[in-house]
């Protein structure tokens, strides 16, 4: 990650000394920077425009005024990583309860969340990734460890529609 973005801060459970002694398993040249295109994100952003206008009233200062989230300075960002959430479940062999959590904050405001479930239905081959931003919505992407690399890179995330279009936001509702 630091090879691509040297000024990006990474915060995790492991000490920097323990992380720095390992070589990255994925090289920066292996990362397709266009896997999720700006056009794809802009299309989902348009679906959420009315909702974003309401959210801006409920959460002032949390969204950009134009609602786009397309660029930021890595100097203002922190990536939060929990590489093995559910350690006790992992030890017990309850693999579907194990996740990898990744978050991105910019200027102290949460912007992106990622939950990767590497094991589905006790399978070491199939997994699922859920990720989202307030501006663009939530998405899911399935993983098949047996699929060829080219096929894996040709996948497209699926937009998760959060609720019926006729639903209305309820202000100050206590759940």
The Cα radius of gyration reads 18 Å
Largest sheet features: 7 strands, mixed
Helix coverage percent of residues?
10-25%
Question: How many individual β-strands?
Answer: 7
CATH topology assignment: Fructose-1,6-Bisphosphatase, Chain A, domain 1
Taken from the alpha-carbon principal axes, the silhouette is globular
| Share in β-strands | 25-35%
Look at the helices and sheets and give the structural class: alpha+beta
- Gap from first CA to last CA: 38 Å
Main β-sheet, spatial strand arrangement = 1-2-3-4-5-6-7
Which residue ranges are poorly predicted, with pLDDT under 50 across at least 5 consecutive positions? none
Describe the protein's architecture and organization.
With 175 residues, the protein is α+β, with helices and mostly antiparallel strands. The protein has one domain: Fructose-1,6-Bisphosphatase, Chain A, domain 1. It is built from five helices and seven strands; from the N terminus they run E-H-H-H-E-H-E-E-E-E-H-E. It has a seven-stranded mixed β-sheet, with no helix packed on it. The radius of gyration is 18 Å and the shape is globular. The termini are far apart. The relative contact order is 0.13.
Q: TL;DR of this structure?
A:
This protein has a single domain (9-16, 36-159), classed as Fructose-1,6-Bisphosphatase, Chain A, domain 1. The protein is of the alpha+beta class and 175 residues long.
